[in-house]
Amino acid sequence: MPRPTARVLTLLELLQSGGLRTVAELAGRLDVDERTVRRYVDHLLDLDVPVESVRGRHGGYRLAPGYRVPPLMLRDDEALAVLLGLLAGQRAGLLGAAGTASETAAAKIRRVLPERLARRLDALLDSVAFTASPGRSAPPRTEVLLAVADAVHHHRPVSINYTAADGRRSDRTLHPYGLVAHAGRWYVTGEDPAVGENRTFRLDRIAVARTLPGSFDPPAGFDAAEHVLSGLATAPYRHEVHFRVEATAQCVRGVLPAGVAIVEQLPPGAEAVPDADSGPGSASHGDTGVWSRVEMRVERLDWLPPLLASLDRPFVIERPDELRVRVTEFAARLADSARRGAPHAGGS
User: Fold this and answer.
1) pLDDT of residue 1
2) CA distance 325 to 307
3) Is the Cα torsion angle 226, 228, 231, 233 positive or negative in sign?
4) N- or C-end of the chain: fewer Cβ atoms within 10 A?
5) Helix 4-16 to helix 34-46 angle, to the nearest 10 degrees?
6) Chain centroid to CA 66: how far?
7) At what angle do helices 321-339 and 304-311 cross, to 10 degrees?
8) Cis (ω within 30 of 0) for the bond into 320?
9) What does the pLDDT look like over 14-50, one tens digit per residue?
10) C-alpha dihedral over 128, 134, 139, 145, to 10 degrees?
11) Looking at residue 342, what is its pLDDT?
12) For 315-348, b where at least 16 C-beta lie within 10 A, e where not — what string?
């Protein structure tokens, strides 16, 4: 027969699964009478576990919010899911101040894992290989992330102390429309009432965020993720690049996602016909009849010729002229390499 302590912990696990549990249901699950269930609930209350009693015909017990997190009862698969989630969040750079908090939380869970499960988890972590390198961006402060999220949810203005990329600090008010996690960073986007424009801010550059009195109405249908990605694609960099490519927007986005470029599929009849001066890649082959226009802001041009070649579609460079020169030079290097003979096996 299970000992009383084991049944009390089982009771806690049942309550943590959520919802209201009747005394009769709990008695059946624990294989005890209803009086014993009430005694077990008293044990949990003595441990400061916030169990709430609901009276009435359909009453019972449920777990209420408390001033601290009660002991958690996790199955093997749940413990593994939590640990892998913490690891994935750390590598993605999305755990807020949580860098240290996630490590201590993972350590606490691992300390109480059964030895057999701990060994299997260690084997998994030692065996797994990640295709993406760990996130290197600074995580936002937990209090900032939670304050901004609360302001977004309740449509309340928020005051932020912000440090721009050039080191300038400012205090400003923001009507936050949405939070976006992208490429290991957190962003908040919304209206800056002082300038009457939508702005996007990195949360790791916000030192303090404080919810203000009042409320606002966000614009209907506003897509925070699309706004942030469009802003990143059009951020001021050294070069402004425009080109057209004979391919659908979906095909181009497979190589140039929304955070890198703005891609617009041109309507029928607006297709561009490459001319003799369009440079390498202008020779039409397997025409689709569908053209897309691409706009990008980039700091360097050297990575664009290989990317354009990887599209394997006819294209027309609109600007800058320097990119056309770089593509021509890249094509010449490819042609030169293709003309070279294969090295002879062995010595002369």
Assistant:
1) 44
2) 15
3) negative
4) C
5) 80
6) 30
7) 70
8) yes
9) 888 778 899 999 999 999 999 999 999 999 888 888 8
10) -50
11) 65
12) bbbbeeeebbebbeebbeeeeeeeeeeeeeeeee
Token pair for residue 67? 């001033």
Distance between first and last Cα of the chain: 85
Phi, psi (rounded to 5 degrees) for 240 = -105, 120
Q: Give the pLDDT score at 288.
A: 57
pLDDT above 50 (res 298): yes
d(CA 317, CA 272): 11
More confident residue, 37 or 71: 37
Compute and round to an integer the Cα radius of gyration of the chain: 29
Confidence (pTM): 0.51
Record the tokens describing residue 281, joined without a space.
């890649």
Mean pLDDT, range 245-260, rounded to an integer: 86
Q: Give the pLDDT band (50/70/90) at residue 279.
A: very low
Residue 61: CA count within 13 A, CB half-sphere: 25
* Secondary structure (3-state) at 318: strand
Query: With contact defined as beta carbons under 8 Å apart, do 322 and 330 qualify?
Result: no
Q: How many CA atoms lie within 13 A of 217 on its CB side?
A: 2
> How far from 49 is each of 18, 46, 108, 163, CA to CA, in Å?
14, 7, 19, 42
Q: What residue type is 230 in one-letter code?
A: S
Q: What is the pLDDT of residue 162?
A: 92
- pLDDT for 212 beyond 90: yes
Burial (0-12, 13-18, 19+ Cβ within 10 Å), 99: middle
Residue that has been written with the tokens 């030079």 in this structure: 329
* Long-range pairs of 331-335 with CB within 8 A, sequence gap ≥ 24: 331/279, 331/280, 331/281, 331/305, 334/309
